[in-house]
């Protein structure tokens, strides 16, 4: 198992209920996982716990047998080997595309930086855009730069927070498939959170559906559709009241 998440619990201060209750998930190398839920369901809390921006009250997270957090260990965010693409992309407006991508590669020597920059620019298909600034790019191109910056250091795991929330509906349709192709081409293990079921069904290998901090469902997109069909049939049977009972 590449990533192991076991019984994560977390509560925000002064909150009456837990934000996350005994959340567990095991992920294979290269899988694309969607965490699906409404606002306030706890999905973004999971990303923050994995990234090390919050500390769980209980539970364990490990990547490739390295423990990131448990009852005794808390690895700092910069040591976790996790990349994150924020909802607003968080690109540096005063830096070019190349400078944004190179920002996290300070440990590499200049020839290695140049080689890695070329690799990720080809991967996100933005060759020739190196000298442009974020305001000179479309929303989809900005997202690609944010992804390139996040994957440039070769992270073990890529986290994406509502990756399509800043894109208009027409662009979302195109970017969904492009993003899945990009993640699969990079062979990078990914978790993205969304409230949009269409995002989850198009991009994910598996969907994790959560409600009020608890897991409702874990499985393939087709399995979730089967659950919905069964629920619809059950609801239909309840509404089909026999004529004799109506008298």
A few lines on this structure:
One of its GO terms (molecular function) is ATP binding. The protein has helices spanning 43-51, 97-102, 110-123, 139-151, 169-186, 197-203, 221-239, 243-246, and strands spanning 3-10, 20-27, 32-36, 58-63, 66-69, 82-85, 157-161, 189-194, 206-211, 214-219. It has 247 residues and is an alpha/beta fold.
Can you walk through the features of this model?
The protein has a domain of 136 residues: P-loop containing nucleotide triphosphate hydrolases (Rossmann fold). 36% of the residues lie in helices and 23% in strands. β9 and β10 form a beta hairpin.
The number of E-state strands comes to 10
Strand order of the largest sheet: 6-7-8-3-9-10
| Contiguous uncertain segments of 5+ residues | none
**For the report, how would you describe the main beta sheet?**
6 strands, mixed
Structural class: alpha/beta
Q: Tell me roughly what share of residues is in helical segments.
A: 25-40%
What is the CATH level 1 assignment of the domain at 1-81 and 193-247?
Alpha Beta
The CATH fourth-level homologous superfamily of the domain at 1-81 and 193-247: P-loop containing nucleotide triphosphate hydrolases
Strand-and-helix sequence, N→C? EEEHEEEHHHEHEHEEHH
Summarize the SSE layout with pairings.
Blueprint: E1 3-10, E2 20-27, E3 32-36, H1 43-51, E4 58-63, E5 66-69, E6 82-85, H2 97-102, H3 110-123, H4 139-151, E7 157-161, H5 169-186, E8 189-194, H6 197-203, E9 206-211, E10 214-219, H7 221-239, H8 243-246
Keywords: ATP-binding, Cell membrane, Ion transport, Iron, Iron transport, Membrane, Nucleotide-binding, Transport
Domain ABC transporter: 3-237
Protein name: ABC transporter ATP-binding protein
